[in-house]
Amino acid sequence: MDDSEIEGALLAACEKFPQGAAAESLLASVPVEMKGKYVEALNRLTKKGKLELLKSQKGAPMFRVVVGENKFAGMSAEERLVYQIIQEAGNKGIWTRDIRFRTNLDVKLVNKILKTMESRKMVKAVTSVVAAKKKMYMLFELEPDQALTGGPWYSDQDFEADFINALKVVATKCLEKKYAAAMQEHRDPSARLQASYVTAADAQAYITSTKVSNVPLAEQHVAGILETLVWDGVAESVFSAAQGGRVFKLARMPVTPPDVLCAPCGVCPVFHNCAEGSVVSPSTCIYLRQWMDL
After folding, report:
1. 1-33: burial string, b at 16+ Cβ within 10 Å, e else
2. Which of 3-7, 178-182, 209-213 has the highest mean pLDDT?
3. Which tens digits make up the pLDDT trace of 19-67?
4. CA distance 103 to 74
5. Residue 144 carries which DSSP code?
6. N or C end of the chain: smaller count of CB under 10 Å?
7. Comparing C-alpha atoms, which of 256, 239, 252 is closest to residue 189?
8. Could you give phi then psi for residue 87, rounded to 5 degrees?
9. Helix, strand, coil percentages for the chain (3-state, nearest 5)
């Protein structure tokens, strides 16, 4: 077999494994005297960008057919390997030290490759709100995962406490309006209760209408705000099978007993002897005067 036939056979074999074919399995059925030519063919296909070099979970080399545009043209094998590892990390990114560990490349070479890829806008470095000194790399076109950026609750690595408090005020207003409407529209207590609940989507629409936020808030963000109101005792939540998730309502306000029930007379041991002109009388009782704030 000539070189082109060997390359064709290897490409055909790799196409059977979309997730990548192990180098060991590709060479398993090759005669010993031909293995050198097959290894050379694998290297040529990799340099041509027709195959990409991967690593299995155990660190064994694997090869996968490159589909579509050849983004690896002109890249060295080391650059392709670094790129593929970053690609596998997705929008969660991968730490520089982990790239070095998985590639077994020298730290200076890894840093040089990363710098080159950044200048070509192939990858980008992002920092995590959890570990600001930890530089993570991902493909240039990806948006970082919220676990890295902190989502709308962080701005330039700073926690936006004032912004969250403003959202909590608006979310509480949404619950209050819903409660007031339920009280006005329904007489039946059960109907009032059901009508007083709001979903995270309802609250999201209300918050969006107030324009209190300059950044778009997803439903999950608003659900998080509503959960904080539950923790604060301002709201209550239950699971709704009809809505397929948790719904929220204004918490039951503590009932203040009528003032007359707090009068000291109700617990006075000499209440029956209390009368004007007597030793114990309302006009001379210091406890009654304190209760009446006189």
Report:
1. eeeeebbeebeeebeeeeebbbbeebeeebeee
2. 178-182
3. 888 888 888 767 777 778 888 888 888 877 778 888 887 878 888 887 6
4. 19
5. P
6. C
7. 252
8. -60, -40
9. 50, 15, 35
